[in-house]
Amino acid sequence: MTLRKKGSLTLPAFENGTIWLAGAGPGAPGLLTLLCVKGLQEADVILYDALVQEDILNLSRPEALCRFVGKRAGVRSLKQPEITALMIEYARAGKRVLRLKGGDPFVFGRGGEEAMELARAGVHFRVIPGITAGIGGMAYAGIPATHRDINTVISFVTGHDSSGELPRNIDWEGLVSASPVIVFYMALKTMPEIISHLKTAGMAENTPVAVISNASIPGQRVTETTLAGYDLETASVPKKAPAIIVIGECVKIRGLIAGFQQTIYNPASPRALEC
Ligand code: SAH
């Protein structure tokens, strides 16, 4: 018989001179992983991106250096090679460096590029996955990512390439025929173009669409519409808030469960968001 020691948890050590490349999830502190919390509590230096919430940074040690390295309107932002160089510099100085990104570091977050650079520089690092906005946002909106009666496939697509345009290499017909549920990131700006591609590829005009902005954080908002009604019904969706756009029949399930779900934004009990 194995003896179970209740209440104990052993997590890997955060060693000096190493980097933890971590995802902070979609925003609510309750959606952090235990490893990310440990990283926040022990790091000497935290290099964080836009979309990482203040509540989360507040978990760091008072003496930790928290440095914003994301993009901010009107301010010159650090270029990717500058961010990587900074991480390497701090690690070589013996610091425990937490590189904190929104969602999951390897999903539309350049984490792959950073990890490759760190490996090239011979710096040791650990990748800590986070709940990606697509998954967390759907869950907080009351939309199951998969449902046996609806989809056996789900696709995550970016609406924005490195030049800020809709990526040119998306096979729209392939996407529409293979994936009954499609989740777009960074797509508010290019949505009119995306909708026109989806329609041309044969997607039905009445396919349900949900725009989920500020998922899991105060101001969470879900707007339901259809492919045909998108322009009209999303006119008031704030264009600056982070948003994911979900397309597929799964959106309809929201109407059946969201009223009872405690994690979603509910004006009558806004504290529910603090979980
Ligand atoms: N690595 C991140 C994605 C970074 S790209 C992840 O795995 O989630 C930034 C995009 O993520 C935003 O433009 C938006 O599409 C989405 N996003 C991030 N946080 C969000 C949130 N709280 N609510 C809705 N969308 C969010």
Shape: globular
Quickly give the CATH architecture of the largest domain: 2-Layer Sandwich
Report the end-to-end length measured between terminal Cα atoms. Answer: 37 Å
Query: CATH H-level name of the largest domain... which superfamily?
Result: Tetrapyrrole methylase, C-terminal domain
Largest sheet: 5 strands, parallel
Cα radius of gyration in angstroms: 20 Å
Q: How many strand units?
A: 10
Q: What percentage of residues falls in helices of 4 or more residues?
A: 25-40%
Label the structural class: alpha/beta
In the predicted model, the low-confidence regions spanning at least 5 consecutive residues are 265-275
Total domain modules:
2
Topology as a string of helices (H) and strands (E) = EHEHEHEHEHEHEHEEHEH
Mean pLDDT: 92
Tell me what portion of residues adopts beta-strand conformation.
15-25%
Small molecules (ligands, ions, cofactors) in the structure: S-adenosyl-L-homocysteine
Which CATH C-level class of the largest domain is it?
Alpha Beta
Helices, by number, come to 9
Provide the CATH topology of the largest domain: Methyltransferase, Cobalt-precorrin-4 Transmethylase, Domain 2
In the sheet with the most strands, the strands line up as 3-2-4-1-5
